Amino acid sequence: MKPFKKWFGSKTEGAEIAAQLSSDNVPNHVAVIMDGNGRWAQKRGLPRVAGHHSGMKNVKKITMAANDIGVQVLTMYAFSTENWKRPKEEVEYLMKLPLEFFPKEIEELIANNVQIRMTGWKESLPDYTLKAIQDAIDQTKHNTGLILNFALNYGSRKEMLSGIQQLVRDAKDQKINPEDIDDAMFSKYLLTDPLPDPDLLIRTSGELRISNFMLWQLAYSELYFTELCWPEFTEAHFYEAVKEYQRRARRYGGL
Ligand code: IPE
Ligand code: IPE
Ligand code: MG
């Protein structure tokens, strides 16, 4: 086991825990269900949207923490296909966050060689939201470091159903043979292609559910739940989750 000790001065909060991690068992892909923004705010007597704002600020911190230990893909669940059911004002606020996030953070993300990606349906996003994220994707597309992937307007059932519809069309057109459909082929029909499946899923806010997130891709991911709400989840907590991941034995059904 190679420790990280040498790499870390006191660079980030959590350096002490990061130094206890093993550098040869870092999860490749970490996915985060960033939940509990509203409750975090309400506990403080603030409007729910204040929680979203605070949650947005946390995204950069955790991105840098992940980057520092060599995580290759960090997927952040930012908005689900079901979140459109929320009050119009809240949805509007959430859709405007990328307009603040990217201009503010893009320079530092580029300096750290981060690539921005998006998993989700672009068509139904407001133009300004799509433009903000598309600009960030374009500006970082030649970077080669950490992939910061936003799951935005994403839902796993819809993703799988569209994949199946396309598979059926391709079979009808004789582009594929139904007998050849296997895990690898199906994965290619999903929005997450070509990203690897998550190794570690973190969900904040104490909810013990998946909420329609990457149902196929999470088949053998390690799950980590914490009572902390997303705005209060720090670098140290992130490294705590990775430390727990490193204690797990992944068997994939074998021995
Ligand atoms: C997560 O926080 C952010 C989004 C779903 C967009 P919530 O807004 O779900 O916060 P809670 O769960 O209501 O506290
Ligand atoms: C999941 O959180 C979606 C995101 C964090 C973007 P929700 O708050 O929407 O999930 P439920 O409604 O508690 O299952
Ligand atoms: Mg929630």
UniProtKB/TrEMBL annotation:
Keywords: Magnesium, Metal-binding, Transferase. GO terms for molecular function: ditrans,polycis-undecaprenyl-diphosphate synthase [(2E,6E)-farnesyl-diphosphate specific] activity; magnesium ion binding; manganese ion binding. InterPro entries: UPP_synth-like, UPP_synth-like_CS, UPP_synth-like_sf. CDD domains: Cis_IPPS (cd00475). GO terms for cellular component: cytosol. Coiled coil: none annotated. GO terms for biological process: polyprenol biosynthetic process. Substrate binds at residues 36-40, 48, 52, 80-82, 84, 86, 203, 209-211. PROSITE patterns: UPP_SYNTHASE (PS01066). The keyword Metal-binding applies. Gene3D superfamilies: Decaprenyl diphosphate synthase-like (3.40.1180.10). The keyword DNA-binding does not apply. It holds the Pfam family Prenyltransf. HAMAP family: ISPT. Catalyzes the condensation of isopentenyl diphosphate (IPP) with allylic pyrophosphates generating different type of terpenoids. Homodimer. This is Isoprenyl transferase. It comes from Paenibacillus cremeus. The lineage of its organism: Bacteria, Bacillati, Bacillota, Bacilli, Bacillales.
